Hints:
- The complex is a heterodimer.
- Chain A has one domain: Glutaconate Coenzyme A-transferase.
- Mean pLDDT of chain A is 95; it is low at 221-227.
- Chain A has helices at residues 8-12, 33-42, 61-66, 84-91, 102-114, 177-183, and strands at 3-5, 20-23, 47-50, 70-75, 96-99, 119-121, 135-138, 141-146, 151-162, 167-168, 184-195, 214-217.
- In chain A, strand 9 (151-162) and strand 10 (167-168) form a beta hairpin.
- In chain A, the strands form two sheets. In chain A, strands 1, 2, 3, 4, 5, 9, 10, 11 and 12 form a nine-stranded mixed β-sheet that branches. A three-stranded antiparallel β-sheet of chain A has the order 6-8-7.
- Chain A is α/β, with parallel strands linked by helices.
- By secondary structure, chain B is of the alpha/beta class.
- In chain B, strands 1, 2, 3, 4, 5, 6, 9, 11, 12, 13 and 14 form an eleven-stranded mixed β-sheet that branches. A three-stranded mixed β-sheet of chain B has the order 8-7-10, with no helix packed on it.
- In chain B, helix 2 (96-104) packs parallel to helix 3.
- The relative contact order of chain B is 0.17.
- At the A-B interface, helix 4, helix 5 and helix 6 of A face helix 2 and helix 3 of B.
Amino acid sequence: MLNFIDTVGEAVAGIKDGSTVMIGGFGNAGQPFELIDALMDCGAKDLTVVNNNAGQGDQGLALLIKEGRVRKMICSFPRQSDSWHFDAKFHAGEIELELVPQGNLAERIRAAGAGIGGFFTPTGYGTTLAEGKETRIIDGRGQVFETPIHADVALIKALKADGKGNLVYRKTARNFGPIMAAAAKHTIVQVSEIVPTGSLDPENVVTPGIYVNSVVRVGGSSAEQVA
Amino acid sequence: MSTQTSIQTSEKPLGRDELAQLVARDIVPGSFVNLGIGQPTLVSNYLTEEQNITLHTENGMLGMGPAAEGEEIDGDLINAGKIPVTELPGASYFHHADSFAIMRGGHLDICVLGAFQVSATGDLANWHTGAPDAIPAVGGAMDLATGAKDVFVMMTLLTREGVSKLVEQCTYPLTGVGCVTRVYTDKAVFLTGPDGVTVRETFGCTFEEIQELVPLPLKKAE
């Protein structure tokens, strides 16, 4: 069921304590800042968050971590020059980290959306990140069994949605959006523009509306949101 | 200086830019290439139009152009190092799972990475020092190392303490097993593979001097 919602606050109101929340974005590109701020305001806690990083600076996901609302991070690259809030929580032992190679993170998310029960991949074979995981030699190559990552909710950012919830993105801000939209039970999208049904070329739709549950328009074009 | 059998091709060790220039020259025309964060990024400065190289960035783009400046800067168009970049004619965008399928699926010809250590059999260590208080962060390093057809490493041959980073066995946590095919350093270029390590050329020193520095048996290129 697709809903067009007026405010980001209403869009995230149903997110419960203990939820697994996927958050799109790579760096600031594609990060749904307004939805993350709304998640902050709605008070949900004890969250497991899936994102490529673990927050930067003093905004978005970093603040959610600072306020102790995130129990566990599933990500590929938590350590950055400005990831001080994650660093502090991690060193204090107040946040759990599941570190996943970036391609495995993406494929595990994709697998969830595609109904795949797991897959073997050469990435990580022979490394500490494969410890405790099932391995096999396939076609002469060592491979590691990886399982899907499902989520209760995905918060993503797209450029435009039409009346059917079909989405198009902008440049490298696409990143995790399409796969997270498919992997979550409930996908909330913030867009810069809602356009009439029929005005997106069906050949160019990136995320079909079937994966989208809630759409909220957030002011300004994404090109203006240069961090 | 150079004799028939010498593989010394430069009077002095190579600087970072000279090394980047050499890597760029060695990339086969028409290749699809991913340049890692840091020193490998310098390689893009020396790729020529005639080489017709397509650059991949793992956050979802083929046909990446040079770093963006001034008016060109667009927050939605960044590379894997989160630096604003530009797009070239013929560029394409795709989501993260497709982007890593491009690597894992063996479609990428070359990736160029930095390293802490490379072993005699081409094991790579470049993601974690193993220090107990360090926050581990892997990003796309393991995917790149295992996915590209050729993995070139760019690094200084020696640590600041003067210890060889080309080693019999890595002591740092591994990024990938047997994945590195070439190691470009300030003092020499090494080819790694199942038959051991071959020195292709040396810079500012002889093959014998390189052998003194590196604690594993080296072969001299014919």
